[in-house]
Amino acid sequence: MVDSNNVELGFVEKTDSHLLCSFHFPSKVGGKPSWLSLSPLPSNKDLECSKCGKILSFLMQVYCPFEESPKAFHRALFVFVCRNVVCCSKNNNENFCVLRSQLPRNNDFYSPEPPKKETDGPSAKFYQDLCVVCGLRGSKRCARCQSATYCSKEHQEADWKTGHKAVCKSNVPTPASAETVSRIKVYPDCNFPEYELITEPEILPNETEKEKSEEDKLKEYEEFMKSKAAESVLPDSAAKDLEKMAVSDNSQDQVFMKFKERIQDEQEQVLRYQRNGMPLWVSECHIPKDGDIPNCSCGLPRTFEFQIMPQLLTYLEVDSLGDSIDWGTLCIYTCSGSCDIGNNYHKEFLWKQDFSDSNI
Ligand SMILES: [Zn+2]
Ligand SMILES: [Zn+2]
Ligand SMILES: [Zn+2]
Ligand SMILES: [Zn+2]
Where does the MYND-type domain start and stop, copy by copy (predicted)? Predict the structure, then answer.
């Protein structure tokens, strides 16, 4: 049996952007990726939505070294999503991309010892031009100032509207201060709000709690659902599901019931990390069967590493628009051997599970 106590929960916290640079090896949500391998970065082609073709938005990265492998002394997983609501469909992962990066302790970019100065360190922009909007490769250059670089025409337009128009001067290099401004500038249509991702071990209710009678538990659960349906931290869709659950025969989706019970004490968790563990499913529908999780290109099977919870949606400021991207949970499966990929970024696998419709 999997030890259910070795789950790390992730929570978001507002932090100064400069603490989330690559050389701090952060786990973070939103803003721009803090690339681990600083070169070569993934090609923008690899980060196009397979549905609409637009550049994906950076959702989060998790720093998760692989103790067993000296090749993965540093290791991070990056998750990207298309913000276009049209590309978001139920139980379908095509608007997502997950990339793995890893480096040995002695590598091409970072000192093998922790940095003495906390304020300065290597960055991906030393090695190639980056898009000032999204932080991906920026091979397109503003024709007027020859200074600002972009991944795509769309992001150039976004920057123009958000203020580049005012600072762009023919042939005058952008002053350092302007660059700083553009680094922390927010592009609400292209980036998600930035947070640090803090993890702490999950503490399960104590044994006496577990010994409660089934009847008591059911009663508690009904109370919980009644109270939470109204003031839930879950996104609207989840809250609606809860309401439906509260009035319907709740013996139907045991999986959803277990989900609610498990997150009850830490409702703001946005991530559950448990390498080789078991995801906490939100529904009994669309759970992967044998063969649904493809092997890594090295031939090794992929195993579960972490899942992104629906609570994260409330921090992304997307659901104010009504129709927006959505998920029940996003489960990340990675190469069980974290195979050697040099300085490259390697695609891993994401399984998207949505809440079931009114508990079929
Ligand atoms: Zn798309
Ligand atoms: Zn861009
Ligand atoms: Zn310009
Ligand atoms: Zn592999």
Answer: 131-168
